[in-house]
């Protein structure tokens, strides 16, 4: 097992700026719990090391059926979004943006096709994964993606959620980078029930990463890119103060008063995934960000009425910003050229078949 990181190695790795100095001690403690000295992901669960095989049911992968280090060891960016089609489109988009070339006669494959739940595409150092809708779906995927990073021995991966949202006081088409993720009671945490007990974990995102993403917005972009607080709810209708659900026991005045209260607290958008995404990445010591596009201004209504072609263009905007960041990081490391990926390696055909069967059995 690799040794844990030292304070000297941590500071060299972080390259802290003056405004980050007061965070050194806390960050060092978290980093020691979640990283080995070579920067690879360390799980906060010793049970995994004792298992003969760790089957990632919902990804149709296994630690002994697949050579996960060979398949995913070069991953630097894990980009997630709600629908399989959106993330398939992003995979093709990022492939062009970073100059990634597939071997002749091959095409992008859905690595998790046999799970029938999530879709995952690998484009060199980028994973493009669908996470479904709402916190339970994201939670399942996040556990298995973090374990995948561990088994693959990925070094300091960065997770970015690319999504859609409702704006509060911002117009449709605005790109929003989350500063703080808040729950329905405006707490910067996510509430878990574990063994019957309530547990709160901080829903912290990397503020430096958020600022860096914001800096990549171009003055030539025909839309605004802003940073603000995001409200994460457990429901699309009543939980977000919508008047158009199957049930509604409040008035339009009540709804508008609530939305104004959110705006007064710095909330600029509403979605359903940010707190669980932030809480689990922070608990794993993984740098993470959330970038969404607003589909409407909720102060003006509840239903999305933009034409389909406009919606399609809006949803490309967060992808463009994230691609700029990925290109920048890869360029800094001289990795924009000669990117050749691996579509997968099977260590054990027998275990590979077992993992497929196990994934299909866990409905």
Automatic annotation (TrEMBL):
Pfam families in UniProt: PNP_UDP_1 (PF01048)
Binding of phosphate, residues: 117, 161-164
GO molecular function: uridine phosphorylase activity
Record-listed substrate binding positions: 240, 242
A biological-process GO annotation: uridine catabolic process
An annotated GO cellular component: cytosol
Stored SUPFAM superfamilies: Purine and uridine phosphorylases
Domain Nucleoside phosphorylase: 76-327
PANTHER family: FI09636P-RELATED (PTHR43691:SF11), URIDINE PHOSPHORYLASE (PTHR43691)
Family note: Belongs to the PNP/UDP phosphorylase family.
Protein name, UniProt field: Nucleoside phosphorylase domain-containing protein
Species this protein is from: Drosophila navojoa (Fruit fly)
């Amino acid at each position: 097992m690799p040794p844990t990181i030292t304070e000297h190695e941590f500071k060299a790795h972080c390259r802290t700026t003056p405004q980050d100095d007061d965070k050194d001690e806390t960050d060092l403690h978290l980093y020691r719990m979640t990283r080995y000295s070579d920067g690879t992901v360390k799980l906060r669960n010793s049970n995994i090391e004792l298992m003969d095989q760790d089957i990632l049911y919902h990804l149709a992968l296994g630690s002994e059926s697949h050579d996960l280090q060979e398949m995913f060891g070069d991953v630097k960016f894990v980009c997630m979004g709600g629908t399989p089609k959106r993330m398939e489109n992003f995979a093709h988009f990022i492939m062009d943006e970073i100059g990634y070339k597939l071997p002749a006669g091959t095409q992008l494959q859905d690595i998790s096709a046999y799970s029938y739940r999530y879709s995952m595409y690998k484009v060199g150092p980028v994973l493009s994964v669908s996470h479904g809708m709402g916190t339970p779906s994201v939670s399942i995927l996040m556990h298995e993606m973090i374990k995948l990073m561990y088994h693959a021995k990925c070094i300091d991966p960065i997770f970015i959620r690319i999504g859609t949202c409702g704006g509060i006081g911002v117009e449709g088409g605005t790109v929003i980078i989350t500063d703080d993720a808040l729950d329905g009671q405006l707490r910067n945490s996510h509430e878990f029930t574990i063994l019957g007990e309530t547990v709160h974990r901080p829903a912290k995102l990397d503020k430096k990463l958020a600022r860096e993403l914001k800096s990549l917005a171009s003055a030539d972009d025909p839309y605004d890119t802003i940073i603000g607080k995001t409200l994460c709810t457990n429901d699309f209708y009543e939980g977000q103060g919508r008047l158009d659900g199957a049930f509604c026991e409040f008035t339009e005045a009540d709804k508008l008063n609530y939305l104004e209260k959110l705006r007064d607290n710095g909330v600029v958008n509403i979605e359903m995934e940010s707190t669980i995404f932030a809480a689990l990445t922070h608990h794993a010591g993984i740098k993470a960000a959330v970038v969404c596009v607003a589909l409407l201004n909720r102060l003006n209504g509840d239903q999305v009425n933009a034409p389909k072609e406009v919606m399609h263009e809006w949803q490309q905007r967060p992808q463009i910003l994230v691609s700029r960041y990925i290109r920048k990081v890869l360029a800094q490391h001289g990795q924009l050229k000669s990117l050749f990926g691996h579509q997968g390696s099977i260590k054990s055909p027998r275990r590979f078949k077992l993992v497929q069967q196990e994934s299909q059995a866990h409905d």
